[in-house]
Every structure is written in C-alpha cells, then in structure tokens.
C-alpha cells in the first residue's frame, strides 16, 4: 500500500511539474507602426511604404501564433495574414500565409515565415512568403519594432 502511495505521489509531482513547464513557455508580442519595405511577389518590385502596421503574437515552441501586417505603398495596399502555424521559437513564426494586394488574394496558403521577431525596439523584423508548395523570399514585408511585450 505504501508503494502505491509513493507511486501516486511521484506521478502527481511529475504531472504538476509538466504543467508548470507548459505554463511558462515564453509568450511574445511585437508590433510596428513603421513599415520599412514591401516586395510585390508577382512583379518583384519593391516599395518603401508610406504607412502601415503589423502585430505578431505567439507562444514559443507551440503552434499558437497570430501575425498580421499591412502596408500602403505605390504598388497598392499589401496585407500579410498568418493562417496556419507550423512552428515557433523565440524569434520566428513559420506557417502558411495569405497575401493580398488591394483586397485581392494574390497568394493563398503560401509557405512563409516571420523572423527577427526577437529584435529590440528600433531594430527591424521581416516576413517572407513564397508559394503554396515551398518557402521562398518572394513576397516581403519588413518593419521596425516600435512596441514589444515578452513574458
């Protein structure tokens, strides 16, 4: 009987410690209201946006993430939406993205990543999106980190 109690105690402690580890995986939020550059993946032309915003929120080493970026440039209004998360770490979100130009879906469920998200305020991050079949540096959004919150 004593062995059963000790076993149950050990199992309980392991379960609690596993929950504590999962609870404390790092969570990050990076925002920008200063876009740096946009590349139109269908034309290859790059633009310095006149305005734009972005927000990325994720829990490192999980599939939980949100990322969205918009930029107004001479080529139109560009929008990058993360629609499925494959992986995350402290500085990168990898997944499938939708890219819109002037409200028209230009790249549907395309492989891409946001990286450099561990940059301090004042430095820049990048989003690159390829095709539905593979990652490539085709569509692009970059911006300066203007706000961040990590815990």
Give a nutshell description of this structure.
With 151 residues, the protein is mainly beta.
The mean pLDDT is 89
Task: Give the biggest sheet.
Answer: 11 strands, antiparallel
Q: Share of helix among residues?
A: 10-25%
User: Count the strands?
Assistant: 11
Strand order of the largest sheet: 3-2-10-9-8-7-6-5-4-1-11
Low-confidence runs:
5-20
Q: What structural class do helix, strand and pairing data support?
A: mainly beta
Question: Whole-Å distance between the termini?
Answer: 43 Å
- The dominant shape is globular
Task: Provide a count of the helices.
Answer: 1
Rounded to the nearest angstrom, the radius of gyration is 20 Å
The helix-strand sequence is: HEEEEEEEEEEE
Count of the separate structural domains: 1
Beta-strand share of residues: over 45%
Can you tell me about this structure?
It is a single chain. The protein is mainly beta and 151 residues long. It has one domain (27-150). Helix content is 15%, strand content 55%. It has one helix and eleven strands; from the N terminus they run αβββββββββββ. The chain has one helix at residues 2-23, and strands at 27-32, 34-39, 46-47, 51-59, 65-73, 76-88, 92-101, 104-115, 124-129, 139-144, 147-150. The chain has an eleven-stranded antiparallel β-sheet, with no helix packed on it. The termini are far apart.
């Amino acid at each position: 009987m004593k062995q059963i109690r000790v076993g149950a105690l050990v199992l309980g402690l392991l379960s609690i410690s596993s929950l504590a580890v999962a609870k404390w995986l790092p969570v990050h939020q990076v925002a920008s209201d200063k876009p740096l550059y946009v590349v139109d993946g269908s034309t290859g032309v790059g633009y310095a946006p006149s305005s734009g915003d972005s927000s990325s929120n994720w829990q490192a080493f999980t599939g939980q993430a949100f990322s969205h970026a918009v930029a107004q440039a001479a080529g139109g209004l560009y929008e990058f939406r993360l629609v499925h998360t494959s992986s995350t770490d402290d500085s990168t979100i990898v997944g499938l993205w939708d890219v819109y130009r002037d409200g028209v879906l230009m790249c549907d469920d395309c492989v891409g990543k946001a990286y450099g998200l561990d940059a301090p305020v004042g430095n820049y991050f990048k989003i690159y999106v390829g095709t539905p079949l593979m990652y490539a540096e085709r569509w692009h959004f970059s911006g300066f980190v203007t706000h961040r919150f990590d815990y």
